[in-house]
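Practice set, problem 2.
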Amino acid sequence: MDLGDISALLRARPPGHSLPQGLYTGAAAFEFDLAAIFGNSWLLAGFEAEIKKPGDYLSVMVGRWPVIILHGRDGELRAFHNSCRHRGSILCKPGEGHVTRLVCPYHSWTYGLDGRLLAASRMPEDFQKNEHGLKPVHLERIAGAIFICIAGTPPDIFVMRRDLTPLLAPHDLQHAKLAYQSTLVENANWKLVMENGRECYHCASGHPELSASFPINASAYFDFEDDTAARYEARMADLGIPIGPAGEDWWQAMRFPLNDGTVAMSTSGQFSVNKLMCDLGGGDTGSLRWAIEPNNFCHSTSEYTFAFTAIPVSPTETHVVSKWLVHEDAVEGVDYDLDTLTHLWTQTNLQDKEFAENNQLGVNSPGYTPGPYSPAAESLTLRFVDWYCAKAATYLKQLAA
């Protein structure tokens, strides 16, 4: 399959429908997605709460591409390709940690926290260390969240910074800590994982824990048939909490009310953390859903922020990385029980894993053809797929120019 085949598949998709089979199953389509989508988008890489001190680092994968984010001695955060300038070994395996400097595990080339090459033994006298620093990756910080972009010229992020900052501000992410992180292997294409995560058509029967607090019957983008939205908007206005909506074609954010009788997005519908991130209104403030294409959604509530990120690994394998952030002063075993905190989204993830894997098995069938989305129940899934097709088409045009 060449780029002409990719273009033909994109053109073959009926409007309002899912994608042709080859875009969910093909090795060439997977390589295309890495270059066209993940290589040209702003990606949520983590949170400032994960690398608070100089020397802290966060090592992440963007598909097959390793990236390292460092907290410098000057307080700045910088991102680099996690590839030694000698023979390419990664400097730090995926995860987080603390270093005074980066030492390549292969031949001990040594880098400062600002990416400069400090030492490279047994090189010739005319070797120029200043020409062999780590290659930078674009990084932006927005209200405690860290975004990276691999592209040489990244998309404009001004509107997101302007409009997402006030929505996230009440959740005080700069004073959060990572309470827990999990990685779930899903045997499904990353787009199927994200399509599932962009709709709640399946929630009534598929997510009993989530359905206790999440308004699963709202249509489109949290449209309510009664006066629920108006009452919620008035209450948030009284508290001085913005609700949105805000966004562009590649991101969106909106605060919404939880079900009547619940105050928290938890299995019980009640708070699972005593030390709240936002205590306005006694913490009864619903949830801020913020989602970034291609591979992320988050829920920021009064007690925690939950972040879901889908990392493509192969045409039919995706790693779902989930993070729970709570107030930095909240003490595990005192202010929260970890199993209680994580139960709702862990169960939801496991249920979604089965849905996505079943979806992949069916898409593999010779009987599969693209099916129509429900405008009321799958509007955000349609939005995601439309964005994907437009982004892919733009990339193809740029290659052809």
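Problem 2, part (b): a different protein.
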Amino acid sequence: IEFEFNKSNITAEGAFELDKLVQVLKNNENMVIMVKAHTDNRGSDTYNMNLSDRRAKSTVQYVISKGIDKSRITGKGYGESEPKIDCKEACTEEEHAENRRSEFLIVKK
């Protein structure tokens, strides 16, 4: 899911995608996932780490609020350290938007 600039709240589009994830988790009762949250490269490293942590937390909280046990989902912020698109200082707004995201890794099936 993607986030708006400088925000960590779940958008309507993000909620739609997370609802699909919740359904997958409900259908696979042993699946455990990890949320990796990211920022674009604007702002300081420290600020972006804090922002990505807030994005990870809001993503995890949304999934838990839909009935998934908290033992099945963890989250961590990575700031700007793992860009999806490594456009350095010449990013378009679309490239920045793709870098502001939460990704999901299956830890256990």
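Answer key, part (b): Helices lie at 12-27, 45-65, 93-99. The longest strand covers residues 102-108.
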